[in-house]
């Protein structure tokens, strides 16, 4: 069965990130087979990066879009874990990025929808394709790697 929508409170239970670095707001859907997900981020003018990037024309930095995509992929990676694996003390670390392309500027007031697709896993590393869309148009796309590593 597909997982229900996850609120910010649910996300905070599964991801270690906190403000100002928790960059996703809601999980809209995770497919029944845990191979795809859609995650939402509301881009707001009061986010700290906009005081310096750029004060006269606020633009969300590309590195933060990529980080938000990686957090969305981590949510998908966690959904794929067995119950035993979920009990282990481990974190997903952003491990690599390939073929990143930025297609449009993201500004306050935009709503980013991240579409993530699991590709494969080996030795605790997962490969994903991810896209960030604004109003149905691609703002960014990349192939990402996330490594799950025990923390004890």
Ordered list of secondary-structure elements with their pairings:
Elements lengths: L7 H7 L11 E5 L5 E7 L19 H18 L3 H5 L2 E13 L8 E12 L2 E10 L2 E14 L2
What does this structure look like?
With 152 residues, this protein is α+β, with helices and mostly antiparallel strands. It has a single domain, classed as Thiol Ester Dehydrase, Chain A (Roll), CATH 3.10.129.10. 20% of the residues lie in helices and 40% in strands. It has a 6-stranded antiparallel sheet with strand order 1-2-4-5-6-3, with helices on one face. The mean pLDDT is 95.
Q: Main beta sheet, described?
A: 6 strands, antiparallel
Overall average residue pLDDT: 95
CA-atom Rg in angstroms: 15 Å
Helix content: 10-25%
Proportion in β-strands: 35-45%
Number of helices: 3
CATH topology: Thiol Ester Dehydrase, Chain A
Quaternary structure classification: single chain
> What is the name of the CATH class?
Alpha Beta
Query: Which class of secondary structure composition applies to the elements?
Result: alpha+beta
Summarize the structure.
The chain is an alpha+beta fold.
Q: Which terms would index this structure?
A:
6 strands, alpha+beta, 6-stranded antiparallel beta sheet, 3 helices, Thiol Ester Dehydrase, Chain A, 20% helix
